[in-house]
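Justification of resources, computational component.

The compute hours requested in this renewal are based largely on the per-chain cost of generating structure records like the one below. Each record pairs the submitted sequence with a full structure-token output. That output is archived, and it is also reused by downstream analysis tasks.
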Amino acid sequence: MTDPIADYLTRVRNSLKAGKKTVDMPYSKFKHAISEILKKSSFIEDFKVIETEGKFKILSIKLKYNDGESVILGLKRISKPGIRRYVSNEDIPRVRNGLGISIVSTSKGLLTDKEARKLKVGGEVVCEIW
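The structure output for this chain reads:
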């Protein structure tokens, strides 16, 4: 797999369209950090790490719905392995006039666009969620 973050976003997007309650995927620290941000921003209900018999772990995400409608309306990968997108703290994009979030990989870890602006740090714009 060349882009595990795009795979993460695609699995979540497909599960939402199919109306699934949970989605499972291979675990990584980066995906775990993205899931923490999504939970803190109320885009997902919860997530957990499942230990398997081998050395692999599984990240299980419980998706959030409001009256049968998905809370997440869209997901978009911004910085890709072939074309990285770095921004300064002044140039961090606003998603849907503040209704969505950008996830930015900074020197202080993964942050939302609002947190990155508050801490005045720039970085790589990983994805947008609204």
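Residues 115 and 121 are 9 Å apart (CA to CA). The helical segments are 4-18, 29-40, 113-119.
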